[in-house]
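Tokens as discussed.
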């Protein structure tokens, strides 16, 4: 009898088995030892299903399965060149597909596509090529089995092309193999610069943009931005815009310009143009003319307010407005430009700015006749005379910068029936603690006192409100020579003080008028 003995043999190994190579792909790395790694890549047009490296683990197994290289349905492809394949290529593509690829190349370049394989079910399955993202009017619509000629796209300046593949529910074929590359696009011509405008940008290559802005007072007609579409089209995305001076405008802000229609060319006949100016509340509007040439019979009317029912500041024709400054008493001005049916002229160029204003009225309140609206140093050297024994002053400032303000003197002029009789009183209008320190304008009205010195040297310390004489406005008056005058009205707003609007009332004795001047 024989007894057979068996021995168990264990094969020792320190590596994993060869993982293989994906179809339409490549393997990088030939060491399959424990803890070694291998990576994979795909042929152009294919996408790796899993780009995580394979690692040989201590169990002599790879950490995951071999990846595949697939021709996908759609995607985003970026680069100077590349490949686009139908899904499943070189196998037959599936049914009922709707795939979109976007190809992007370098700035200023176009996309050229070459077809190496092309076989679709004629009429039922098709490939669309576009360059603006819209497939309603594609650059090409391809179907059947005839190899197409090269197709160029990307002419719209976005340096991209899009492909869309549609297959129906039945027959399918091999599909397509397309390679693309970028190519230089011809630039656009210089489009020029519209009259009365500035252009920003100086490059005319495909995809480059130019922007335009009109000079003050003109309105842009057309597109403010143009993009070079280039390529075979050699065109800009829109016509060159125009800058026009229109009939009428509504403007807001701290400064600006108003123009007559067609300025600096002649305006047309029979115009009725309305211009509205509005600046921030608490400010006045100052209007000046840089150019003003109207024919006789053509007029510009200016109103101190929101509409034509406001107080008129004047009606101007020919060159009347040149050298003049008009100030509003509010933050609005209303202008009406009217032309007749005869000759025309160059028109006007007006500028406006916001200003702080001092408004002076000939009476007890702001409903009285205005004697003027003053800003900056307008009042220096001027003398204002009332027709009654009252003056009303309104001082308006905003929330921005401040200045020294003003110091005004007023003199009471006594009325008598005899010419040349010298009877003048010099009351002093002071405030606070006799100017030892500046006071806020909001305190001014409550601290004003009116001191009158009579012939006996006595002083009467009554408030301005108590000195309302009731003298009739516009009564006959022949001003006598001034005896003396030392009345002072001070306004010294402090830096940082904002939004103040005090009302100062100046009143005099019965039968006395006031003369106001700046010192």
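Sequence:
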């Amino acid at each position: 009898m024989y007894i057979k003995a068996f021995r168990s043999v264990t094969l020792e190994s320190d590596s994993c088995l060869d993982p293989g190579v994906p179809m339409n792909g490549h393997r990088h790395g030939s060491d399959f030892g424990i803890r070694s790694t291998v990576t994979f890549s795909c042929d152009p047009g294919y996408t790796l299903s899993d780009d995580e490296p394979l690692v040989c683990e201590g169990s002599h197994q790879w950490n995951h399965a071999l990846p595949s290289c697939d021709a996908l349905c759609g995607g985003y492809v970026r680069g100077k060149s590349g490949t686009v394949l139908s899904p499943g290529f070189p196998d037959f593509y599936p049914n009922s597909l709707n795939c979109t690829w976007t190809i992007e190349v370098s700035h200023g370049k176009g996309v050229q596509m070459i077809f190496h394989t092309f076989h679709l079910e004629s009429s039922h399955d098709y490939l669309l090529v576009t360059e603006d993202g819209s497939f309603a009017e594609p650059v090409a619509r391809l179907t059947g089995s005839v190899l197409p000629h090269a197709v160029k796209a990307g002419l719209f300046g976005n340096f991209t092309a899009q492909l869309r593949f549609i297959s129906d529910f039945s027959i399918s074929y091999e599909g397509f193999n397309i390679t693309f590359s970028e190519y230089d696009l011809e630039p656009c011509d210089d489009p020029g610069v519209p009259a009365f405008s500035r252009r920003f940008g100086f490059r005319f290559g495909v995809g480059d943009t130019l922007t335009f802005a009109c000079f003050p007072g003109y309105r842009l007609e057309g597109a403010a931005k143009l993009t070079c579409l280039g390529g075979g089209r050699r065109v800009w995305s829109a016509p060159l815009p125009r800058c026009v001076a229109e009939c009428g405008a509504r403007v807001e802000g701290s400064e600006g310009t108003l123009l007559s229609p067609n300025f600096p060319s002649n305006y047309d006949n029979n115009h009725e143009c309305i211009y509205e100016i509005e600046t921030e509340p608490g400010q006045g509007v100052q209007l000046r003319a840089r150019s003003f040439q109207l024919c006789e019979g053509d007029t510009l009317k200016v109103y101190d307010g929101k509409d034509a029912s406001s107080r008129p500041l004047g009606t101007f024709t020919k060159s009347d407005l040149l050298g003049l400054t008009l100030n509003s008493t509010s933050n609005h001005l209303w202008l009406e430009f009217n032309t007749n049916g005869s000759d025309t002229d160059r028109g006007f160029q007006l500028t406006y700015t916001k200003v702080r204003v001092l408004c002076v009225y000939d009476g007890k309140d702001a409903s009285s006749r205005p004697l003027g609206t003053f800003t900056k140093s307008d009042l220096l050297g001027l003398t204002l005379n009332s027709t009654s024994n009252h003056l009303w002053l309104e001082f308006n400032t905003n929330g921005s910068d401040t200045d020294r303000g003003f110091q005004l003197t007023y003199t009471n002029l006594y009325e008598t029936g005899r010419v040349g009789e010298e009877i003048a009183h010099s009351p002093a209008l002071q405030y606070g603690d006799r100017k030892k320190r500046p006071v806020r304008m909001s305190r001014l009205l409550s601290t004003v006192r009116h001191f009158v010195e009579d012939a006996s040297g006595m002083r009467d310390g009554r408030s301005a409100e108590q000195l309302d004489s009731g003298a009739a406005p516009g009564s006959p008056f022949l001003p006598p020579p001034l005896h003396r005058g030392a009345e002072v009205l001070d306004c010294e707003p402090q830096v940082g003080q904002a939004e103040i609007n005090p009302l100062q009332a100046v009143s005099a004795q019965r039968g006395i008028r006031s003369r106001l001047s700046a010192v």
